[in-house]
Structures are given as C-alpha cells and as structure tokens.
Amino acid sequence: KGYFEVADGGTIFLDEVGELPLQTQVRLLRVLESGEFMKVGSSQVQKTNVRIVAATNVNMMKAIEDGRFREDLYYRLNTVQIDMPPLRERKGDIHLLFRKFAIDFAEKYRMPELQLTDDGVKYLENYTFPGNIRQLRNLVEQMTVVEQNRSVNSTKLSEYIPMNAQLPAVVSRGGNSGNSGADFGSEREIMYKILFDMRNDLNDLKSLTSELIK
Question: What percent of the chain is predicted at pLDDT more than 70?
Fold first, then answer.
C-alpha cells in the first residue's frame, strides 16, 4: 500500500517539499485537486482524503521564479502558512532543546545526562547554528558519547563548534539521494557506538592495569 492509501482519513507530512521533482509535483497536485490516485501498474482509480502538512527551508517564491516548483501546487499547499524562525533567532529555545536532547541521548546510550554551565548556555545562544536544530541535536549526541565530563562549558563547546567555523562541504556518494540522509544517520550511529565501546574498553583496561599494579 502507498502512503495516500494508508493515510486515508489521516495526515501525511511531506518534509523538504521544495525539493520534489517536477514530475512528482504534477502527481501530488492531481491527488490534492481530485483526491484520486492510481497505484503504479494499476488502472483502478482510488479515492483518498488526507490532510497535508508540508515543510521546507527553500525560498519558495524564488523556486517558482526559477521554474523549480509549480506555482499552482504552491498555492494549493499553502492554505495555512507557519513561518518557523531559525534557531539563532530563538535563543530562548536553545537551552531547552539542549536539555531535551541530552535527556534523550543519556537514555539511549545509558549515560549520565550532559549539563550546560552558565557560560556554556551563553556560548550556544551567541552561536549562529548554520545547521539549525539538526546541528544542535548532532552536537549533543556526539558529546554524550565522547565526553567523560558531564559538565559542558564554553571552552569545551568551542572545540566542537568554533564561533567562526564554516559548514563542511557535503560530498555526494551516488546512489539514491533520497536515502543518503538515512544512510548517513545510520553510519553516524555506528560510529558513535564504536567510540562508546572503545571508551568502555579503555576504562576497563585502566581498571585492570590499576589492579595489576596493586
């Protein structure tokens, strides 16, 4: 079953809708206009009634001007528009989100929760976060696994996100670009798991060496 069939009577969330290929935009517009769709390889028309929630960080008017997004689909989707400011414009949310991610990853990796010092909070509030909330989430996950000290100050944060640092270039690895994000996330989790296991092994080795010395 496809998404529109499964979600009949419910909601579909379309993330990064501004990146949809033009051919897919045509199909989506047809579903939104008529509520009808056909499965791949089928000649039977099916009906669906779904609510669409769409998100994008693309400048949609620019995308329409450049011919990368259909104007009719934009106005069909844009019934209720909610503009979400970037993280750097919501400084009051940064500490709350850090605490939320710290709790999540402490539970996931069975480690004590990270705690921000006062100067650590100010450092994050003054940081531009070019990678937005995903960057903050990845930062907290990385520090949860790597750092032994659970108290995080501005000095330690500067080692991970220097104030004047630029985002690294993204290298395409080929294959299905739609799956690249999932692949990267999976590889990152494997890397963190390896680092976590290595640190545990190192602590065990320290304990064993101490016992042998005694």
Answer: 88
